[in-house]
Amino acid sequence: MKIVILGGGGVIGQKTAHALAASGTLRGQQIERLVLADIAPPAVIDAPFAVGTRTGDIANRADVDAMIDADVDVVFHLAAVVSGQAEADLDIGLAANLHGTLNVLERCRALGTCPIVVYTSSMAAYGGEVPDPITDFSVHNPQTSYGAQKVIGELLLTDYSRRGLIDGRGFRLPTISVRPGAANLAASSFMSSIIREPLNGAEAICPVDPAFEHLYLSPRACVANLIRGAEIETEALGMNRCMLMPGRTWTIAQLIEAMTRIAGPEPARLIRWEPQPEVQAIVMGWRARTEPVKALLLGLRADESFDDNVRYYLEDDRPRA
């Protein structure tokens, strides 16, 4: 089994790599080689199999060809320009999220071996006049360029799968929280920072009010779902290759209450409430309630409570003194 993780230097890419290293298998086969590819050199991980790293830009077809070997079995396509950056700069978003995804699919098509492609889409695929809750059959109506680019990727993934060029499966991710590391340009970045920074003893800014609802999933559960997604038998996927990934809906107030239950009252005092209209304009268009029936039937799972998300951050990611 030979695997490539595009976006292998990012949080989810690295965690997926560590999870694969811990198991040593995927789809019932021993992993022989794992390649971590990203625009900057990914961190190398220890594993019981060969691990390599490559750098390149998925917006460049030659780079993609060099990152995806001819004998690859599974590609995790996690690479993307995040929501806030894609909204601020249309061309950057189009280059990575649209043309980059097409480059990945075309490279996999050229292999002639129908590799499995696991694609991370987004809940930003929905917005505007959609039902509440969103179901597996709700119509896409993205209200951002990022969402539109992800939807186009979903349609291409499904069509290439229909043609037998790849074996694709796409998942619309909830917001992943609590993410480790520094804040990024994603509009949802504050949904981790208002928990992460206070737990680390630093101040954080919340740009929305405490009643703001959103859909969340921990990094640990996201990785487990992506690996499960790669292992689903092709016949079980049916004609709809892209689906909701399970998550849980909570308000900002409930996130802070969970943090307080786990870590006491002090961290919450480090949150400063400052409305940010440019962030609100993006996140208020996202939808928070879903019924991910198909993914649940296929074995994907959500966290039980946001208390778990906080605990996982403390166990897995909080910097040690």
Model description:
The chain has twelve helices and 16 strands. By secondary structure, it is an alpha/beta fold. The chain folds into two domains: 200 residues, 3-Layer(aba) Sandwich (Rossmann fold); 85 residues, UDP-galactose 4-epimerase, domain 1 (Alpha-Beta Complex). The strands form five sheets. A seven-stranded parallel sheet has the order 5-4-1-6-7-9-13, with helices on both faces. A three-stranded mixed sheet has the order 10-12-14. A two-stranded antiparallel sheet has the order 2-3. A hairpin with a 2-residue loop joins β2 and β3.
Q: How many helices does DSSP assign?
A: 12
| Contiguous runs where pLDDT drops below 50 for at least 5 residues | none
CATH topology of the largest domain: Rossmann fold
Q: What is the end-to-end distance?
A: 38 Å
